[in-house]
Amino acid sequence: MKGSRSPRVPLFGGAATLLLGLLLVVTGIPNVQADLYCGEHNCYHVLEVEPTADVAEIRRAYRQLSLVWHPDRNSAPEATERFRLIATAYETLRDAETRTDYDYMLLHPEEVVGNVYRYYRRRAPKVDVTPIFVGTVSLISVLQVRAVCTMSDMRTCL
């Protein structure tokens, strides 16, 4: 047929995704999710709120728990670590987009790569790739010219 298009093939098909998943399972990388958000803890349980809690309830719970567990007020050995966990849970749940990503991770823990991507896309520094690209292309060009000069007559390189 004239004008008909062939279906688009995704860049990474099912086989590539399967191989990547297998590689992650074999190398033990799925444990990387333990370092995301509140780690092994559920952020909602840390702040002692329901998943349906609004931002005001989360803020209230954070303030109450931080008064109890702040290291300046509590001399217990676990107070510092507990306060850090409470602060991390609050930072995760107070922002709507981060909370949406966190809720998605709770619902889909098997999507390791996607969850890690969603976590780090908000935390990674924004870098302009233009200088990196120009520098890389320039370096490759210089190396190519040097390789040609060493293989041919030096007079053509001057």
Describe the structure.
By secondary structure, this protein is mainly alpha-helical. It folds into two domains: 111 residues, Helix Hairpins, CATH 1.10.287; 32 residues. The chain is 61% helix and 0% strand. It contains seven helices and no strands. α3 packs antiparallel against α4 and α5 runs antiparallel to α6. It starts with 13 loop residues before the first helix and ends in a 7-residue tail after the last helix. About 4% of the residues have low confidence.
Per CATH, which architecture of the largest domain? Orthogonal Bundle
User: What is the name of the CATH class of the largest domain?
Assistant: Mainly Alpha
Q: Structural class, from secondary structure content?
A: mainly alpha
Query: Globular, elongated, flat, extended or rod-shaped: what is the shape?
Result: elongated
Count of distinct structural domains = 2
Count up the helices: 7
Q: Whole-number radius of gyration?
A: 25 Å
CATH topology of the largest domain: Helix Hairpins
Number of strands: 0
Mean pLDDT: 82
* Assigned CATH superfamily of the largest domain: DnaJ domain
* Biggest sheet descriptor: none
Query: Alpha-carbon distance between the termini?
Result: 56 Å
H and E string: HHHHHHH
pLDDT < 50 stretches: 6-12
Beta-strand percent range: under 5%
Secondary structure: helix percent: 55-70%
